[in-house]
Amino acid sequence: MPDPALLSAETAPPLRPEVEALISAFHARTPIRTWSLIVTIYGDAIVPRGGTLWVGTLITLMEAVGVAPGLVRTAVSRLAADDWLTRHRIGRRSYYALSARGRDAFAAATERIYNAPSGTWNGRFRIAVLDDGSDPDRAAARKPLEDAGYGLLAPMVMIAPQGRSGPELGHADAIALDAVPCEPEDARRLAARVWPLDRIAGGYERFCGQFAGLDVALHKGTDFPPLDALLARILMIHEFRRILLRDPALPAELLPADWPGTEARAMSGRIYRALVGASEAWLDANAASESGPLPAPGPQFHSRFA
């Protein structure tokens, strides 16, 4: 297996223009969040293949995205200190894996990233009336429900389509109510008032514009070398994840017509399926764990964007 340390950005062949454009867009958002891209790399590409990666492989990938080795080392050290990564050494080499906290966080995201929402909505809302009498930190009281997709109807009143998973309601700190809109259009108007749907839609529209060139090139059968394929795949998932995790994943009945999130997901699936073979070939040939080459991904990996 080639030593990934030899595959530096200086010796690697030029990247395809579609990939260069995605890298430029990544750097245009300042400050760049090196740590966040590293978490995406682990969650998308490394966890399905054993979960542990030599830092030299990670540096090779990040250098190809234009991130200096020193920034990578600083980022992984910070992630380890914050309990997102674990580190162990064998000789002079350091190996990192997602911690239990990191695995749990990305596992929750994985379901939403790679699988389309399922099920139908029964037309009812769940309302949580939170007790603000004893806790002056309203943001902390709302956070578990916000993470579960609840929106803010009033300072201490939150709402979500019924059937949404999340913290159990009805305890001493919250009163749970169910409500049914009088008219279907009232439900859409309520959703537009509670959730920032215009801003979320704009994010999906920008995503589709940003990745349209890549989508067209792949549709035409353009060949992407393994490193190009892996970088494009990671940058796409990184951007899709960033937008998706701000999306409350409302039922279609509550969304405007021609919701751009539908096309963003379809485009993500097309691109991912087109790139996955070549991108996995790069990992096969170059990525290393403490026991050697990474193990092959399991069957669940191959059902992504099915």
Automatic annotation (TrEMBL):
GO BP: DNA-templated transcription
Domain Transcriptional repressor PaaX-like C-terminal: 195-284
Domain annotation Transcriptional repressor PaaX-like N-terminal: ranges: 34-102
PANTHER family noted in UniProt: PHENYLACETIC ACID REGULATOR-RELATED TRANSCRIPTIONAL REPRESSOR, TRANSCRIPTIONAL REPRESSOR PAAX
Listed name of the protein: Phenylacetic acid degradation operon negative regulatory protein PaaX
